[in-house]
Structure formats: C-alpha cells, structure tokens
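job 3f2a | input accepted
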Amino acid sequence: MTLVDVDYWQVAIRCLAAGEVTLLGLWGEPGRVHMAVFDHSVVVLSLDCPNGHYPSVGALHAPAIRLERAARDLFGLDPVGLPDTRPWLEHGANPTAYPFLPVEGEGLHQIPVGPVHAGIIEPGHFRFTADGETVVRLEQRLGYVHKGIDHLMHGATLDQATRLAGRVSGDSTAAYAFAFARAVEAALGVEPPPRAAWLRGVMAEMERIANHLGDFGAICNDASFSLMLAHCAMLRERVLRCAVTCFGHRLMMDRIVPGGVAVDLTEDGIAGIRSLIDEIRARFPALVDLYDKTASLQDRTVGTGILSADLARRFGAGGYVGRASGRDFDARRSIGYPPYDRLHFEVPVLTEGDVNARALIRVKEIDQSLSLIEQMLNQLPVGEVRVAVEPHGPAEGLAIAEAFRGDVLVWLRFDPAGGIDRCHLRDASWFQWPLLEAAIEGNIVADFPLCNKSFNCSYSGHDL
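job 3f2a | predicted structure (464 res):
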C-alpha cells in the first residue's frame, strides 16, 4: 500500500482515463479510500479522507462509478464529482422510487424484469427500454444479495475470515480461497509447501472445468438446444463427483487455506482425476463439433451481444468476457503465481466479442485446464501440504487469483492482535456487469437470456 496525497491521486485518475493503467479495484474503510491499479505490476494507492470526501475516479473513468457508489453506501465516503449519485446498496432505505436513467423517443416502452426470476437463480433487476423488440437501453439494479462482507471481515479471526472468503461466490469458492490464502501468506511472509501449491492449482482448474462445462451447456439451452445442456450437465456432474472423492467436497469448499491445503490427494485420487480427464477428452469434442455444425445454434450465437474491444480494454474485463473481445489478460500468466509460473499453457483470445466467441473461449480453456491438471499430476511434489500460520501484529497483503470468470482480488490488513482489521474481496463481475448493458443494445429482447448467460456474471460476488 502506498499512501498518497490528493495531487498524486488525481494523477492516477488521469492515467486511468488515458488507458495507461488498468483499474483493478476501489474500496473504502472509515476515513480512507483505496485503489488498486495494474500496469506491469499491482499497486495499491490509499488516500486519507479526513472530511469524508475525495476526488471521484468515476468522474473521468467510468469503470469506477459503481465501485464508488458502493464504497459511499458502505463507509460514507463521498466521491466529489461522481456522475451517478444514486444509492447502490441501500435498497428500501430511501422511500422514493429508484430513479432509473431516462430514455427519450417515440414509441419506446419499458420492460421490468426481476429482481425475482423464474428458476433457482440470484436476484437482480433489469430495466429494458425497447423499440418494438429491439433493446435501446438496459439498466441493471443489483445489490439484492448484499451481505455486508467487508463489515463481517472487520474483527474476524483468521479462521472465520477464511471460511467467509470461500463463501463470497460459491461457484468460485476455490479461486476465492486461493486468493485469500495467498494474501494472508503475503502479509505474514509465509511460504506454503510446494505440494500444497500444486494441489491448489488442481482444485482451481477442476473448478474452472466444471463451471465452463455448465456454462457451455446453458448457453446452448438458452438458444433452444437443450440436448447440449443435458450432456454438459452430466460431464459437470462427473467433475463434482471426482472432487468430492478426491477432496471431500463437491465444490472443494474450505480445502484451500492459509498455509496450504486442508486435505492431501491420494494415489487413488490421482487415478480418479486421470480417468476424469480421459472421459472429458473422449466425450466433449463431439459436443463441440455438434455445436459447430448446428445451424440453428450458430444463427443465435454468432453476431449476437457483441462487446467491443475498446470497452473490454477500458473496463479491464477479465476472463472469457475480456478474452473473447481481444483483451489478452490472465492473472495466471500476466501476474503469475505458483504453480502456474512453472507450467506451460496458452491463453486463448478471440476478437469477435459475441456470444459465440465467449462460448468458444470456454471450450478452449477446458482443453488448457485438462493439460494443466495433467502437468500438475505428473510433477506433483511429495511432502507436507500445510504449514502453521500465526498472525502476529499489524501486516498487510494483497493477492490475485484467476477464477473461471476472471481475476479475483483480495486485499487484507491484520490488526495488532492478529485478527482481521480490514479485508476487501473483488470479483471480476464488478467490471463485467456494466459491459452486459452495452452488449445487449441493438439486440432483440429475446436474446437477452443468451447474452446474459454468455457473461454469467456473479450476483453474490458483486453484491458484497
């Protein structure tokens, strides 16, 4: 962390607006605001706000707007010059109706969707303004699953905070635990055993494969091709069953911990994962071939929901959203951390930016993840899987891990007694949700579920 003055803060804002650096996160605490930026390395800038005010980053750099609205609602920090001053998280606190942005024009109508949806999904409100069937504007209102995680972290023990970090977004529990553990280890100067680092990678890649399989099938289902959903769901289930056999939990929750991992991988487990890899390689390519050769699918996905490369770059879009629109960033390689710094893999990048591209990035990443797991199993070190971690006074750490959606950032600070003073966890969805609004414009209303699923942003990870 670098404590800066107002002048330096404003220089950083201008660098962001000019595209010289990328915004990784912005969060607050009482009397202070923090901003993480990335150029060739990650830097955290901190600015004291003795009067509760600070120069708005969002005034010149739109990706910061929602982050600043959230920090204001949580900590009362007022970003001077913020273009959008509406409340973000305090649903129901204001007796007046939420003022959605106005749209002018003849023949326009609005379609409100949510926050309660059909099916077992998280809540979010989508306000469509349409001209006939064509979407003119989409505006989201999120925050319905706000859980107060920043406040729950304050004063938590390390064990409590570890469990909480793994529950920010359940489908990314391994990635969040990975980032949190590395942030703790960075703060305390702890090095996990080599075997633990490789087992963390195995879990992270299994989590990625399971989610990409589920997403690929769901995208096809939203294009009225339910057969693909059934086959992909069966493969995803095989991954989850392998995970519970090898690591004791279908989602591998609470298995990555500060200091290493909570459970070792047996020889039977290794054999089970190798069998899983063989099965996916035998069955999945035929599904991809079917996708490529089904004209009705291609008609729905190709050219639909295009996200421009410029917007992906400006918002620092991570994961398949950014890589489908030409942004060549992957924390496993672009930042680098064990075990990926000793493995060989490619980061697939496409430039079309449509639903089809986001689906194909997932396909390519599944292939890379299978190769990564094989490399890790072939080179798996022997030895212990966990070392003791004992906080001992003030310390601060930051880490980034690549989840299936994109990069997860964790910043934390220990208090003098060794408890968690402050901790902030940032999901890739913070920078992806606004881009969904842009991608759907000009498409028909019926294509929104398809576009939405191709983004598959997290509600829970966003609504801290």
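job 3f2a | Residues 108-141 form one domain.
job 3f2a | closed
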